[in-house]
């Protein structure tokens, strides 16, 4: 459990970078089987003008480049927010061993919406999912971001 909390803190550091850049504050890291960080990323949708520039996708790309393989079989991805269906499917395709996330997302989170790809027997790969690690801290970063955004929007609109 100590490892999960430590690694989620690293993902939260990435989320803070996204916050400062005006991006929805989601961070992700990928660790190998020895718990070495091999990739770090945060949302860059606004900066890159790219709907696929989610933290998870960017971290998967970086990890694949570093390892020289699209298969991330013995790796774990840590994400501050429950992955959306696009990201969870990319995680499935990358063959991750584990997915660990912080805040649940009842509006767009894959698992909360019932898209539990890790349980679908029709897929040829299975992985474990752990949710709620540092849930309060991960949720707070998101809440603070959207409160600030609404406040700024009201000022501009007035």
UniProtKB/TrEMBL annotation:
Catalytic machinery residues: 56 (proton donor)
Residue intervals of the CMP/dCMP-type deaminase domain: 2-113
Cited Gene3D superfamilies: Cytidine Deaminase, domain 2 (3.40.140.10)
PROSITE patterns named in the record: CYT_DCMP_DEAMINASES_1, CYT_DCMP_DEAMINASES_2
Amino acids binding Zn(2+): 54, 84, 87
Cofactor: how and how many bound: Binds 1 zinc ion per subunit.
SUPFAM superfamilies: Cytidine deaminase-like
Purpose: Catalyzes the deamination of adenosine to inosine at the wobble position 34 of tRNA(Arg2).
Protein name according to UniProt: tRNA-specific adenosine deaminase
């Amino acid at each position: 459990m100590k490892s999960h909390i430590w690694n989620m803190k690293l993902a939260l550091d990435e989320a803070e970078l996204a916050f400062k850049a005006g991006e929805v504050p989601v961070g992700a890291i990928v660790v190998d089987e020895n718990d070495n960080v091999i990739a770090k990323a945060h949302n860059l949708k606004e900066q890159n003008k790219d709907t696929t520039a989610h933290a998870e996708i960017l971290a998967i790309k970086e990890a694949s480049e570093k390892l020289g393989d699209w298969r991330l079989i013995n790796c774990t991805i840590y994400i501050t927010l429950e992955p959306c269906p696009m990201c969870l499917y990319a995680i499935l395709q990358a063959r991750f061993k584990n997915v660990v996330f912080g805040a649940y997302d009842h509006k767009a989170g894959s698992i909360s919406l019932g898209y539990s790809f890790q349980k679908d027997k029709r897929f040829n790969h299975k992985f474990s999912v752990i949710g709620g690690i540092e849930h309060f801290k991960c949720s707070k970063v998101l809440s603070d971001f959207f409160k600030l955004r609404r406040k700024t929007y009201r000022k501009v609109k007035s």
